[in-house]
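Good morning,

Attaching, inline, the backbone tokens for the sequence recovery test we're adding to the shared suite. The designed sequence is right after.
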């Protein structure tokens, strides 16, 4: 990367975290994420990818307690000193647990909720629904939708807020191939058009392979930022190659 391209939006220094005692989920992590970067998150299930996302979202340490050491800054601000509501203006996240993120009576109300809460234009909900092809679900109850439809509703609710940083935890797991392609196109357009920084954890190597040039590779409690070519190879499809 050229020096002029170095523009960190997330800076992690000596980050360590344990839920209990000294059982470190993450230990002495150091990396940066540059503005406009699309970064894949790779590693076995349960190794700490979601924990890292909770830290970046401010859920740790503000809602979930544990032993947090080191420095985490977003847009130059220390997350330990920010309210979750303040972090929400910059960081949007789609969690794996779909039902935990849905609580409104209709899809339209669901997507408008965050906009109204942050005093943004509720009409942005319509644009988000159009992009993800869910206008026909507008008056339906989110809880009565299929898993794939719920996923698109949640994506639309985050997309409408236009965050600087978008975190996606297994976003394609409930999507069929056409909607997976739609997700790929939307993320690419969002990144190129809005310069949105995207962090995406997925056990779908095709999605990571198509989107990301750099990957945060989890190995035990360490995190290493490497190029895609170092941990993936291409045959008929993308496959993981753990080092």
């Amino acid at each position: 990367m050229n020096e002029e391209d170095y523009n960190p939006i997330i800076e992690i220094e000596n980050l360590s975290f344990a839920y209990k005692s000294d059982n470190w989920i993450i230990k002495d992590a150091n990396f940066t994420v540059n503005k406009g970067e699309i970064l894949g998150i790779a590693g076995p299930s349960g190794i700490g990818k979601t924990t890292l996302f909770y830290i970046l979202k401010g859920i740790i340490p503000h809602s979930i307690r544990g032993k947090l050491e080191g420095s985490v800054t977003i847009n130059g601000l220390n997350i330990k000193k920010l309210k979750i509501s303040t972090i929400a203006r910059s960081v949007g996240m789609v969690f794996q647990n779909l039902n935990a993120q849905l609580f409104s009576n209709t899809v339209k109300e669901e997507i408008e909720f965050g906009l109204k809460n942050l005093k943004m234009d509720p009409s942005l909900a319509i644009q988000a629904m159009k992009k993800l092809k869910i206008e026909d679900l507008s008056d339906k109850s989110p809880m009565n939708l299929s898993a794939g439809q719920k996923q698109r509703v949640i994506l639309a609710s985050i997309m409408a807020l236009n965050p600087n940083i978008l975190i996606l935890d297994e976003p394609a797991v409930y999507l069929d191939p056409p909607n997976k392609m739609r997700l790929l196109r939307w993320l690419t357009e969002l990144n190129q058009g809005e310069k949105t920084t995207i962090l995406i954890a997925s056990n779908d190597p095709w999605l990571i392979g198509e989107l990301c040039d750099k990957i945060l590779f989890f190995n035990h409690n360490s995190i290493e930022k490497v190029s895609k070519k170092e941990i993936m190879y291409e045959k008929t499809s993308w496959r993981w190659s753990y080092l």
